[in-house]
Design a protein that fits this description.
heterodimer, A: 108 residues, mainly beta, five-stranded antiparallel β-sheet, globular, B: 113 residues
């Protein structure tokens, strides 16, 4: 069983559309991170959420940490082709564990 | 910009060869990690370290070894490479703090023939 379940696994949308991707677990975490990875590169941190119910905004990206600190969502408004990439959630569970990711493609 | 470097970036070798993938960081980070990732797929934790002389196994570690003799250096060794080892290997480091940001290298893409 995966520690972190991400959905959807794949998402292909048109430029300008909105989307939400999810990261779920049965475990409670003190914090959760979202990373974005482009082909041929390592993941880069987007945000860290630490408080249940917390909402953080990064330009067109909105991150939410669930009240019970078991899940998180990433919402992108008016997606652009530059948003294309692999979106990964991660938690520090003594080591650093990643979900399987959501592969997002935004078509012009 | 992250100061973490991996060499080689690309490597093609034959079955049975011994290889070492190098990873160095200049940020003074205590924690370092190795992940294996097939293209576009999830990251699997292979090994990690809390600091000098500390090494821990992850999920896919049984066929590789690591060492941490110096803070800045965390090499990964495959004693006998097999085609199933063909993959991308990503090294990362972070401060030893809760929710510390991981900084990744550009990866080493290994092909075993």
């Amino acid at each position: 069983t995966q520690l972190l379940e991400q959905s959807p696994q794949f998402l292909s949308i048109q430029e300008g559309e909105n989307l939400t991707v999810y990261c779920n677990s049965s475990s409670v975490f003190s914090s959760l991170q979202w990373y974005r990875q482009e082909p041929g590169e390592g993941p880069v941190l987007l945000v860290t959420v630490v408080t249940g119910g917390e909402v953080k905004k990064l330009k067109r990206l909105t991150f939410q940490f669930g009240d019970a600190r078991k899940d998180s969502s990433l919402h992108i408004t008016a997606a652009q082709p530059g948003d294309t990439g692999l979106y990964l959630c991660a938690v520090n569970n003594n080591d650093m564990r990643f979900g399987a990711g959501t592969r997002l493609t935004v078509k012009p | 910009e992250a100061d973490i470097y991996q060499t080689p970036r690309y490597l093609v070798i034959g079955t049975g060869k011994k290889i070492t993938l190098e990873c160095s960081q200049t940020m003074g980070h205590d924690k370092m990690y190795w992940y294996q990732q097939d293209p576009g797929m999830e990251l699997h934790l292979i090994h990690y370290s809390y600091g000098v002389n500390s090494t821990e196994k992850g999920d896919l570690s049984s066929e590789s070894t690591v060492s941490r003799i110096r803070t800045e250096h965390f090499p990964l060794t495959l004693e006998s490479a097999r085609p199933s080892h063909t993959s991308q290997y990503l090294c990362a480091s972070s401060e030893y703090i809760p929710a510390g940001e991981l900084f990744f290298g550009e990866g080493s893409r290994l092909t075993v023939l």
